[in-house]
Amino acid sequence: MTPAIRVKGTGRKAIINARLLDPAEQTDSTGGILIENSKIIDCGVKVTRDNLPKDCEIIDAAGACLAPGLVDMRAQLRDPGFEHQETIETAGRSAAAGGITTIIALPNTDPVIDDVAGVEFIARRARKVGLAKVFAYGAVSKGIEGGEITEMGLLHQAGAVAFCDGVKTIASARLLRQALSYSTFFDGMIVQHPEEPELSKGAAMNSGELATRLGLSGVSPLAEVMQIERDLRLVEMTGGRLHFAHISTGESVEVIRKAKKRGLKVTCDTAPFYFALNENAVSDYRTFAKLSPPLRSEDDRQAIVAGLADGTIDAIASDHNPQDVDSKRLPFAQAAAGGVGFETLLPITLELYHNGHMSMLDVITKLTTAPAGLVRIKGAGTLEIGTAADLVLFDPDRPWKIDPYQFESKSKNSPFDGRLTQGRVLRTIIDGREVFADPSVAEGA
Amino acid sequence: MSVMGPAADHYPHPHLLGIEGLTPGEITLILDRAQHYAEKNRTADKTSNILAGATVVNLFYENSTRTLTSFELAAKRLGAMVINMTVGTSSVKKGETLIDTAMTLNAMNPDALVVRHGDSGAVKLLSEKVNCAVLNAGDGRHEHPTQALLDALTIRRHKGRLHRLNVAICGDIAHSRVARSNILLLNTMGSRVRLVAPPTLIPSKIDRMGVEIFHDMEEGLKDCDIVMMLRLQLERMEGSFIPSVREYFHFHGLDRAKLANAKPDALIMHPGPMNRGVEIDSEVADDVERSVIREQVEMGVAVRMAALELLVQNHRQAGGQA
Predict the structure, then answer these.
(1) Quick check: B120 and A201 CB within 8 A?
(2) Are strands A65-68 and A70-75 parallel, antiparallel or unpaired?
(3) A297-321 burial code (b ≥16 CB/10 A, e <16)
(4) Each residue of A298-311: pLDDT tens digit?
(5) Is A197's Cβ below 8 Å from some Cβ in B?
(6) Which chain B residues are Cβ-neighbours of A298 within 8 angstroms?
(7) Taking CB atoms and an 8 Å limit, are B204 and A211 in contact across chains?
(8) Which residues of A have a catalytic role annotated?
(9) In which residue ranges of chain A is CATH 3.20.20.140 found?
């Protein structure tokens, strides 16, 4: 394995003159960060060139944004089992290029992550690669077959931060009830892919005029909220902690908003696809825009933006799903669903800031503190003194055109192919080590 | 000859993938040329050498006897060489991908590929990977342009026009590419389309395509000029779209009594193959006064001759075997 890391010693390093975004403190101010060994030892306005200790490597951010490294709570690494699409190493490089320092990986690998050995395998491989910190979801059901629950307690102890059945809906009410109920004793979280499975069977896209014109089977957007409504009752019944992944419809936002008001322990996330694109992206049978859940109407897209702005949607995850050419270059109905997302997560999410829907700090919160809090990973997504120096430095304004063939990811299936966007990662730092530097700031540039 | 204006002076597209995107003038151009062949096909001198030296490959991923024969005959009457490739669905899954097959055929430099495929959009995908003319012979539930054109030619021969007609398309709209292509064509030419079917066979938001929707057959057929029946595609149905064939015929099958609601000179059409006693009663299907079902088949050859001629000529002008 080629070492992906440029070890720069373990001495002191300072990043100064940055727009410092601290989501935990909710501050957005000029300042810097001082790193010693792998930890943050100082942070804030007082970290300036004049106040630095001796023998300190200095990076002048020149006004660029400095934030905690992003925490991506939903991604497929396709490793083990589908290494032709992505490996933990290529995923790590891709994440580094996207400013992501912590990844929570879905368990739908081959073999499925449904036992302790699987969780440990992922952790060991990720440590060896030395890029983003990778945590695993444990499967809710053995083999993600929707039958019996896994050894959730042991998985949790081994490091599984939450539980889900990958890209499958936990369809059985009994299974979900048992999982929610059982996991309360260690305060575990269950993540649901909310899509009523019978209604969505065989569907290639969102139902409606476009699906009818294209002659493709559609799934009603109501299939999502229907699943959510049933699951909310199970949360009431069990007192468990349930999180809905990649919410994509306005009805879902509305129902979750009300449930939260009633005090239910439910949370949700969405992915950039669902607030930056609508179903028109699949016109011309564009399989890169075939996603699960499918892209929805423009009204739904706007409702997702509103749900993010008012806090109903807690977090933003990439929903990174690498698929090779042979899985995508097929007639639409046969093509695999999913899009890569690591390297577009930050710039696409920054559109919410550029378009005036959210403040810069709120945008960063949804990508750092919020997901880290949901999966209870301590020391991730924060600038607190004493925590690991996992950081991203980015230029929020730099324009560029998305070209998946420049991606570090092994797969190039981005629905944002060709999109003009703003915001570029300049440096990614993990445990004080620089794991990515944009050519514009790299040494010798 | 039409309120929609004269025929276009040429067909400007490299392929014929669907009715969507065609102008009234382009449709009229194809129909006028097809009318020429329809007349020629009724004489002893049916063949020409307009496409002599051209190679046409019929690539069919779905079983078809009628359409395949029609395309084969059309190409042969124009003097082209024809190869038929019928690929069963199961062997496709085992073997080569659609793109690989397309690339392989493309390497043999055909002038036109006539493609039928079970997936919507598959023919378009294929057309992006080859440099010959591609003619869509039906893709999934998306489009079947030559069927809509042959229907239009049949209607025009009887009614003398394609505008201001009330056309009822009845039956399995949900699974029908024929319905979609016909809606697009008839709307483009200025006729009004109604869809008549049980609610489970009406696709979501199809009213946005500019059609009126009826569930009651007698209401839907009232005063219409054309009754276009569709084949109930039981083989494409997952789950219960209709309770039984018996019930379907009772409410939505075309018989004399229901037909009485249409105009006295209303034409009966069906793209075939018919399920007699399911969507149509034999008595009306075989009524020589009203049914033009056999003429539709005849016009099929003429329309396909016209389409092949226009496409291959375009391809030749664009540099042919480049």
Answers:
(1) no
(2) unpaired
(3) beebbebbbbbbbeebbbbbbbbbb
(4) 999 999 999 999 99
(5) no
(6) none
(7) yes
(8) 319
(9) 69-374
Select the residue from A206, A279, A285 to test the B interface by mutation, using most B Cβ atoms within 10 A.
Answer: A285
For residue A144, which amino acid is it?
I
Chain centroid to CA B31: how far?
A: 13
User: According to CATH, what is the number of the domain A5-67+388-397+422-441?
Assistant: 2.30.40.10
Size of interface A-B (CB pairs under 8 A): 69
**Contacts of residue B120, Cβ cutoff 8 Å, sequence gap at least 6:** A214, A215, A216, A285, A331, A332, A333, B139, B140, B141, B142, B177
Are A331 and B142 inside 8 Å of each other by CB? no
| Interface predicted TM-score of the whole assembly (ipTM), two decimals | 0.91
CA distance A199 to chain B (A): 11
Do A245 and A317 form a contact (C-beta atoms < 8 A)?
yes
Residue B301 above 50 pLDDT?
A: yes
d(Cα B157, Cα A133) in Å, to the nearest integer?
72
Q: What global pTM score does this model have?
A: 0.93
Q: Is B200 annotated as contributing to ligand binding?
A: no
What is the overall mean pLDDT for chain A?
95
Q: How far is B292 from chain A (nearest CA, A)?
A: 27
Query: Does residue A172 sit at the B interface (CB-CB below 8 Å)?
Result: no
Mean pLDDT value of segment A195-199? 94
- What 3-state class would DSSP assign to B100? helix
Q: Does domain A69-374 have CATH number 3.40.50.720?
A: no
